[in-house]
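Propose amino acids for all 150 sites.
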């Protein structure tokens, strides 16, 4: 898991060939104030999702992905995100190949961090994660999620 600010995004281009395209999309989403929706960035390799929502109460429901890396960028608002290593989690359902998602509960120590404007988290397949947790009352979050194929 990586947690950083947008001005440092170039440091991570070497992690995956799709990261530059993903961060370029994030910058475009900010500059053009893209509407909520799904966006093709680089065919099936990189895709973007612009979301707007009210963060939820905390739970022990985590998610993980096998085929895609998540880059989750906060455009506005704030939330907690939490992450745990896959070896410390228990699955609660079967892996959904169509949606590339499986849900988990964390059995031990997790990392919980505050995310606000211009911060991002990168979750690799071994990073079981739980975004969208309420940090403050009455806050709406605008987020860009970039899915980068492994």
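Proposal:
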């Amino acid at each position: 898991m990586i947690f950083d600010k947008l001005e440092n995004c170039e440091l991570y281009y070497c992690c995956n060939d799709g990261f530059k395209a993903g961060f370029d999309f994030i910058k475009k989403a900010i500059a053009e104030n893209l509407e909520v929706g799904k966006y093709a960035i680089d065919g099936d390799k990189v895709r973007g999702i612009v979301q707007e929502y009210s963060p939820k109460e905390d739970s022990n429901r985590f998610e993980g992905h096998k085929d895609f890396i998540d880059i989750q960028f906060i455009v506005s608002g704030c939330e907690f995100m939490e992450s745990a290593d896959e070896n410390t989690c228990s699955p609660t359902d079967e892996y959904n190949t169509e949606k590339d998602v499986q849900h988990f509960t964390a059995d031990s120590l997790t990392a919980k961090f505050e995310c606000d404007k211009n911060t991002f988290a990168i979750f690799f397949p071994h990073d079981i994660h739980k975004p969208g947790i309420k940090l403050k009352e009455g806050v709406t979050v605008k987020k860009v999620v970039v899915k980068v194929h492994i």
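DSSP finds one helix and twelve strands in the chain. The helical segments are 19-31.
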